[in-house]
């Protein structure tokens, strides 16, 4: 099909059909693949112009980004050529805010929750008029399959419901995401170095590849309060430098880059983890230590995350069952705050993640629950 990018009569602006969705605690511009040029190398100028990058002020006011990594995202969805494998193919791009980086090296778990509803709402997949439906998604960044299950009403994804996620106000319809066989998304193994822990810069780390490659380090070992909130972390440039140095060296150990300098901004992701403790979160409420199994502070594309990336949460839940890992050593033994899975406390609240292992020790799937909704659709414009 001919892609649908056109210029206005004045030739000053270009435009293409698009939608704007919230997925979990992120937002993204959503394109149908058929509306973009067939060659991916031609996508970057479109994505950068539509999102408003690069912006030296870091605000993306001339586009649809929001000056945060969680709001500077693009999703491209098309019908899967092999209907036996999946219903749709989904490609994720993380867009640099102050630079021209268009990074396809990782998936976004939060925005994955919007892919199924977009496939229904845009007509890419025929839907039942009412009832639950499951959309099989192939993420092209990781070549992994995700099953997204959610209710449909009158042929559209249901937006209303009574399910709430921390970090997003109000309630919405619940979306179940089942990440099938998520280990080894980029490296082929849950533990890319075959070790439960490694040493980088004299710091013990656990390198785990589940959903996305991740690096976990104890906040205590870095001399940091693990309950520090994002704004306070951002005011510690030396801490961010240390974490980025560890992350880049982890990239080399995991086989993701040939050297630290060439490591991408998106992967591996890095997070500080700590034992549960009662502390204040961004809302001003107190989180009781009995509510969670572990506290996490994630860094996403150089910025402290105000919640937790879904793929980071997935990797932590898997690492919690790996004997000797940094996560397993810090998690309280013999109990779970929630019987449905491993509960992570983050800066905006908590999230429960279920990691299910087979009898032979392989990771079968990881289950998380999110919400998503369409915010607008129509045309997006760029210069």
Topology:
Elements lengths: L5 E2 L6 E10 L2 E7 L10 H9 L21 E7 L8 E8 L6 E2 L5 H13 L8 E10 L4 E10 L2 E2 L17 E6 L17 E3 L2 E8 L1 E7 L11 H5 L2 H17 L15 E6 L4 E2 L5 E2 L6 E7 L2 E2 L5 H10 L6 H5 L11 E5 L2 E9 L5 E8 L1 E11 L1
Parallel strand pairs: 3-4, 5-7, 13-14, 17-19
Antiparallel strand pairs: 1-2, 2-3, 2-22, 4-5, 5-6, 7-8, 8-9, 8-10, 10-21, 11-12, 12-13, 14-17, 15-16, 17-18, 19-20, 20-21
Molecular shape:
globular
Task: Report the mean per-residue pLDDT as an integer.
Answer: 95
**What structural class do you assign from the helix and strand content?**
alpha+beta
Q: In CATH's first tier, which class of the largest domain applies?
A: Alpha Beta
Tell me the radius of gyration.
20 Å
Strand residues, percent: 25-35%
Describe the largest sheet: 20 strands, mixed
């Amino acid at each position: 099909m001919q892609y649908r990018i056109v210029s206005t009569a004045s030739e000053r602006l270009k435009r293409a059909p698009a939608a704007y969705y919230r997925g979990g605690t992120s937002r993204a511009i959503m394109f149908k693949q058929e509306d973009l040029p067939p060659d991916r190398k031609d996508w970057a100028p479109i994505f950068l112009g539509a999102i408003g990058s690069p912006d030296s002020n870091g605000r993306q006011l001339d586009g649809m980004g929001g000056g945060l990594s969680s709001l500077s995202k693009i999703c491209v969805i098309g019908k899967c050529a092999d209907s036996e494998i999946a219903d749709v193919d989904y490609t994720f791009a993380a867009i640099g805010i102050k630079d021209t980086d268009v990074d396809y090296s990782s998936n976004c778990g939060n925005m994955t929750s919007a892919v199924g509803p977009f496939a229904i709402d845009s007509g890419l997949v025929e839907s039942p008029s009412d009832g639950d439906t499951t959309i099989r998604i192939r993420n092209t960044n990781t070549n992994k399959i995700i099953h997204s299950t959610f209710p449909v009403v009158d042929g559209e994804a249901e937006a209303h419901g009574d399910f709430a996620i921390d970090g997003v106000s109000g309630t919405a319809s619940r979306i179940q995401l089942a990440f099938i066989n998520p280990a080894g998304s980029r490296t082929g193994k849950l533990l890319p170095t075959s070790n439960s822990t490694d040493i980088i810069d004299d710091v013990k780390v656990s390198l785990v590849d589940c959903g996305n490659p991740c690096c976990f380090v104890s906040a205590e070992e870095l001399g940091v309060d693990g309950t520090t909130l994002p704004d306070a972390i951002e005011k510690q440039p030396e801490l961010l430098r240390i974490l980025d140095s560890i992350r880049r060296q982890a990239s080399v150990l995991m086989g993701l880059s040939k050297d630290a300098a060439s490591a991408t901004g998106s992967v591996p992701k890095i997070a500080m983890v700590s034992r549960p403790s009662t502390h204040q979160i961004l809302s001003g409420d107190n989180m009781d230590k009995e509510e969670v199994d572990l506290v996490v502070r994630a860094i996403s594309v150089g910025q402290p995350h105000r919640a937790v990336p879904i793929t980071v949460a997935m990797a932590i839940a898997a690492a919690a069952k790996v004997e000797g890992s940094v996560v397993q050593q810090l998690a309280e033994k013999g109990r779970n705050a929630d019987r449905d899975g491993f509960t992570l406390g983050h800066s905006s609240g908590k999230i429960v993640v279920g990691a299910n292992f087979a009898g032979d020790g392989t990771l079968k799937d990881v289950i998380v629950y999110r919400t998503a909704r369409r915010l607008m659709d129509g045309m997006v414009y760029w210069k």
